[in-house]
Design brief:
The protein has helices at 2-10, 17-25, 28-51, 74-103, 108-133, 138-165, 181-207, 229-259, 262-287, 292-322. The protein is mainly alpha-helical and 328 residues long. The chain has two domains: 25-167, no CATH class; 173-328.
Length: 328
């Protein structure tokens, strides 16, 4: 009788029914996906801070002008909203990691990814504080953005790991042929080049090199750089953008023609569409002399391309692993 009562109170496996409800509510897949979306939005908001020159609107950290409720001025509110959003995203990432380690520790891919995300989050907070205290030096701003992009990539990998682990097996379905290593290498190269492009773009924006050339696609009516640090930096950014475009197009053609896996096709299609839009927005930056709205959209699209390529790479890796004999 006592055993029966205990069983009812704790559930079939000795677990509280309330704990089971919490577990079903805090689904790792949804938490990880929400963390990805929130982190992406935070990166775009950070771009808004930079585009509106609001980075030093709050000269101290973590308070703003010595207060936790800052003065109601536009630039101050933009910067402070970024800090509040960062705090919210941080809590969400910590919750994702807690769920992964509490209930999904056997999923080493997702659990490790969540732990790495927490470590990156701590580093990002510290670098953000240094960025304010040192009054936005170009190198530290670029480091801040690079950690944010890596954090976004790790969260995408965590979400893919959570989804892949919990995918219900389809009766009679096979993993299919393994993805060729050459495809994964091409995806990795495109992803790495996009990361470099975004960081170079950050230097271009923060160093004042965005309007060294007032025409596009030429460079002062020529096809080569006129020389000088800012001119060469701008020139390198455009050349790297062309290289990234070629890689994304090659990856898209490869996936569409040979692999034809629906998820990968959707990923590369989104990456290619976002890249094309980013090119035209980048041209608009030059043609219209860096309007705030297009600068924000430019970073948003670049981050979208990065996210899509990371997704394609991680999902492709997961498919390749699932096709191995030991994975079946």
């Amino acid at each position: 009788m006592l055993k029966a009562v205990t069983s009812v109170a704790t559930g079939e496996r000795g677990q509280s029914p309330w704990l089971g409800r919490i577990r079903s509510f805090l689904d790792l897949r949804y938490l990880a996906l929400l963390s990805v979306i929130a982190t992406y939005a935070l990166i775009v908001l950070g771009g808004t801070v930079r585009a509106t020159d609001s980075g030093l609107a709050c000269p101290d950290w973590p308070r703003c002008h010595g207060q936790f409720i800052p003065p109601l001025e536009t630039n101050i509110l933009i910067e402070y909203s970024h800090r509040l959003a960062a705090a919210s995203v941080g809590l969400l990432i910590v919750a994702t990691a807690a769920v992964a380690w509490r209930w999904h520790r056997e999923n080493r891919f997702a659990a490790t990814g969540a732990a790495v995300a927490v470590a990156l989050l701590i580093g990002q907070v510290l670098v953000g504080a240094v960025t304010v205290n040192l009054e936005l030096p170009d190198t530290v701003v670029a480091l801040h953005l690079s950690i944010a992009l890596i954090l976004l990539a790790v969260l995408i990998a965590t979400a893919v790991g959570a989804v892949w682990w919990q995918r219900p097996p389809r009766p009679g379905a096979s993993a299919g042929p393994a993805l060729p290593r050459s495809l994964l290498n091409l995806a990795a190269l495109a992803t790495s080049a996009t990361f470099a492009l975004i960081l170079v773009g950050s230097y271009v924006a923060n160093s004042g090199a965005g309007l060294v050339y007032s025409d596009w696609p030429l460079f002062g009516g020529k096809i080569v750089s006129a020389g000088g640090r800012l001119a060469d930096l701008h020139y390198a950014h455009r050349l790297l953008a062309a290289f990234v475009g070629a890689l994304v197009l090659a990856l898209a053609v490869r996936v569409w023609r040979r692999e034809r896996r629906p998820v990968l096709v959707a990923g590369v299609a989104f990456a290619l569409a976002a890249y094309v839009a980013e090119v035209f927005v980048g041209a608009a930056n030059v043609w219209f002399e860096l309007p705030t709205s297009t600068r924000i959209i430019h970073l948003a699209l670049a981050s979208a391309v990065w996210s899509a390529l990371v997704f394609v790479l991680v999902w492709g890796y997961a498919e390749a692993r699932s096709a191995l004999p030991e994975a079946s």
